[in-house]
Amino acid sequence: MTPAPLKRILIVGGGTAGWMAAAALAHVTRGTVKIELVESEVIGTVGVGEATIPPILLFNQLLGIDENEFVRATQATYKLGIRFHDWHRKGESYFHPFGVYGTRIDAASFHQYWLRLNKAGLDDDLSAYSVTTVASQMGRFTRPDGDPRGVASQMTYAFHFDAGLYARFLRQRAEAQGVTRHEGKVADVRLRDGDGFIQSVRLDDGRELQADFFIDCSGFRGLLIEGALKTGYEDWTHWLPADRAVAMPCTRVGDPTPYTQSTALEAGWRWRIPLQHRTGNGYVYCSPFISDDEAQARLRASLDGEAMADPNFLRFTTGRRKKTWNKNCLALGLASGFLEPLESTSIHLVQSGISKLLLHFPDTGFAQADIDSYNRQMRLEVERIRDFIILHYHATTRDDSALWRHVQAMDVPETLKQKMEQFRSRGRVFRYDDELFQETNWIAVLLGQGIVPERHDPITETIPLDHVRQRLQHMKAMIRQGVERMPTHEAFIAANAKAP
Ligand code: FAD
């Protein structure tokens, strides 16, 4: 325990995580705590990370960021979900939308009524009842307009953006709010005698930076949390075997889609993320099953524009730091662990880590109960996301390569097994531990991966079948008409937030 009030925070690392932390802490503490950040231009950042999920809107709102200004500054486009190709089986695709399916009919969830109709012979796709899916199919976008009865009120969205530009954007705000930036390379970390808390970091030019609290945003290295404090890492490669990625942006061809695309390949999967000024591409793969050269060639061959940079190779181990808060050091971003980017959750986990830090803020010292509570909440959040990502791999029928045979046969966490079983038997989905992904998210991926419930919920039977059919037909027509009135994604950007 340190009884003294918290006066100085040092953030080590100036990637997306470091500048998100700096901007948020400066905004919230309003000058009561001295905040410094050290980063090294020579080392640089990972330079990828372009797709986000809807809670990012809350982060930007917390910081009072104007959305149009942000979209312009980061060359962003809007994201309504992810289209998954070839994940269940080759030649098939499905959409994982943000937002909900349908509107409430009665006591059961909407999809249960849809399921009942389907069991009764209505051959209809659940996607037709998701506003964001229909908008993505038609290339439309608008923001919710505040009318709760209108179709647009169901537009739930996130962004694709240039993470480097986002970090720069946040840096300007953080510096304007008093954050001091140091350029330099951390060469050494000094621990305090006795309790082993971090006392200071020494830069390679001899400068020494002291603080009461250290935020490790140093990327995969985990300079403080692992390098100095030896916190330990829980390796999840046995469930998430991808360990490398190669990224290569290309010139934009055509209008940007309001969704990310993820295509399963022989040894992993590739992403396609449209931005205003380019298209982001990458291949996430398992090194035992493909060489770097082959992966690069595979990615290059699939580009739909001209390559704009040399391939950027990255290596990682999926998993999490055993504690994300250890003594007076909290790890955020890649320093805290890495789940592969299949559901665009890394930047969200930075945001979530910052929000939880604010709830457990050590303003008068370090209470172990708060540290334990923070670690428990972060662990549960990451584990539930991990389960969701594993589902995409495990529930495949593909057996055309060693990777897909492996993930299909592997044993999965009990928590995921239970989710799959409950859905398979009655189409039920329950959320635990305040988990990130909602009922809709799970349903989209469970169905998309070919898990079809054997029965629907009996509670849906309290309403006559014809009545349910009419409600659904009406809903479907309203969604279509509502989406047709929306501007195209490209026109929306041009009218509101076109980058210069
Ligand atoms: P980094 O960007 O690595 O930054 C580390 C910082 O620490 C840098 O400023 C560096 O200079 C500094 N540093 C390191 N060592 C020292 C030292 N000795 N001295 C001084 N400074 C030092 N996330 C998403 O949300 N969506 C995505 O679509 C997505 N796609 C991804 C795809 C891939 C292949 C990968 C690998 C990641 C992806 N991510 C994605 C994750 C995302 O890129 C990161 O979570 C995010 O950019 C945060 O990175 P970071 O700031 O933790 O680390």
From TrEMBL:
In Swiss-Prot or TrEMBL terms, this protein is called Tryptophan 7-halogenase
Q: So which domain of life are we looking at?
A: Bacteria
Taxonomic placement: Bacteria, Pseudomonadati, Pseudomonadota, Alphaproteobacteria, Caulobacterales
Q: Note the InterPro entries from the entry.
A: FAD/NAD-bd_sf, Flavin-dep_Halogenase_NPB, Flavin_halogenase, Trp_halogen
Give the originating organism.
Answer: Brevundimonas fontaquae
State the Gene3D superfamilies in the record.
FAD/NAD(P)-binding domain
